[in-house]
Amino acid sequence: MTKVEKPDVLIIGSGPAGGSVARTCAAEGKHVVVADYQPFGGTCPLRGCEPKKFLFDVTNVALRRKHMVDRGLRGDLTIDWEKMMSGMAEMRDPIPSLVEKFYAEHGIVGVHGKAHFTSPDTVVINNQKYQPEKIVIAAGATPREVDFPGHELLTSTDEFFEMKELPSRIVFIGGGFIAFELSNVAAISGAQVDVVLRSDRFLRRFDSSLVDCMIEASRDMGVRFHTMLPPNSLKRDRDELVLCAGEDDIKFRADCVVIAAGRVAHAEALNPKKGQLELNQKGGIKVNEFMQSTSNPRVYAAGDVVGNSMELTPVASMEAMVVASNLLYGNKEKPDYSVVPYTLFTHPPLSSVGLREEEAQAQNISYKIFEGSASGWSEYRRIGELYPSYKIVVSKDDDTILGATINGHNSEEIINIFAFAMRTKTTVADLAKWLWAYPSFGYTIRYMLK
Fold first, then answer.
1. Residues facing residue 245 across a β-bridge
2. DSSP character for 292?
3. Measured between alpha carbons, how far is 104 from 298 in angstroms, rounded to an integer?
4. What is the pLDDT of residue 419?
5. Are residues 250 and 289 in contact, defined by beta-carbon separation less than 8 angstroms?
6. Contact partners, residue 437, CB within 8 Å, separation at least 6
7. Minimal CA–CA distance to 320: which of 5, 23, 1?
């Protein structure tokens, strides 16, 4: 082992959280080292949000064309899977080298390799010891492991993004974001798709009634949903795979079975015990209100590896800004999770912010509900969308927005307006007075709050 390196800041992970801390600290003259065992850039741009959104945008055009047949659109429009995946790769693949170039130009040392603690103040990467003044863990999350006979035949979501050919029949195991988003992409592209869930409810972060509307839209494109079917086994039978699930060993025959059972904080591989790192109930790095380890003050953490907040890029970036500030100027900044909008990029997208009705009930909050179908509104009728819907939770005490869930075209932008209204404590009465471009989807807020 060579001499011990002693940078000011060692960052484990090069995604949105780690990269943000690295840029900020390097700009202030700190000697920064960033380590990652995977290509630089992180999950979001390489294996998550960005490639997924590319596939959403392409398949959305194909679905919109189908909806427009009765409105005068003519001509066939089908998905060329190989070309679509190549287009996605052309956008994604240059990212690691661009990140590495940025590091070099800004004096940040990039190290490729797995990091692990050997003591509270020492991290080893590629047999090189590092004893930095401060350590930032931004290692993200890793796919949840499953263990049943034949699990080695499963296809990971990372591998899905590398498929050169679309399998004719695909089964997705899981009922979260990635299972729904990729199942929509596959179905619109021409595959027969089944989604198999071990429990009875999909997408618990969203209002259940609007999830039902989104599921109906997915069924229209051919996706079949199955609940209360934990996987029992997976085996190969000649040229196909057979998944057996549930008490009755129901069989699903497919060409590909994708495991999309969620992700867990990438903490155990870092050897947290040696690093004197306490873990929280979700297996992430336990931190205090300043994003500092509760058991090792040398260490801070941000992003999915914390495990106690939503796995969202904006949340990771916000936490990273908090960490960077506290590293540079002392513990003063705290993360703000009060208003976090998020979107499931299905067809149509499902978006939410703030409290769901069931949460308002549990907290004994005095509230009122604005809800309904938007299928009769001209904005949705003209694009042929059948299941748009909304549910807004409003405080009875001060008429402010407590939460909103929107299912429909452009819901990701509408939800940002509701998030802005929540941050500024804008009342429903004031929102009703605002002027919006017309006819736009933002204008539909006026309909929702009547």
1. 231, 250
2. B
3. 26
4. 98
5. no
6. 443
7. 23
Q: Which of 55, 246, 24, 14 is nearest to 140 (CA)?
A: 14
Going edge to edge, which strands form the sheet with 122-125?
115-119, 122-125, 128-130
Residues 6+ apart with CB under 8 A from 13: 34, 35, 36, 42, 137, 138, 139, 140, 303, 305
Rounded distance, CA 71 to CA 354, Å?
Answer: 37
Residue type, 205: R
C-alpha span between 428 and 424 (Å, rounded)? 12
Integer Cα distance of 422 and 413 in angstroms: 15
In 16-164, where does DSSP find H-type helix? 16-27, 43-47, 49-67, 81-92, 95-105, 157-160
Cα–Cα distance between 243 and 226 in angstroms, integer? 13
Lookup: tokens for 281: 């109930």
- Which among 192, 181, 176 has a CA at the least distance from the CA of 143? 176
Q: pLDDT below 70 — which residues of the chain? A: 1-2, 309
Strand bridging mode 263-265 / 141-143: antiparallel
First to last CA, the chain: 70
Structure tokens at 428: 């429903």
Closest Cα partner for 306 from 9, 6, 15, 8?
15
Query: What's the confidence (pLDDT) of residue 309?
Result: 67
CB 138 within 8 Å of CB 10: no
DSSP state of 310: -
At residue 132, φ and ψ (nearest 5 deg) are -75, 165
Cis amide leading into 314 (omega within 30): no
320: three-class secondary structure by DSSP: helix
- Give the single-character DSSP code of 378: H
Phi then psi for 287, rounded to 5 degrees? -125, 160
Task: Quote the tokens at residue 237.
Answer: 């039978």
Domains and CATH numbers, the chain: 9-51+86-143+264-329 (3.50.50.60), 151-261 (3.50.50.60), 348-448 (3.30.390.30)
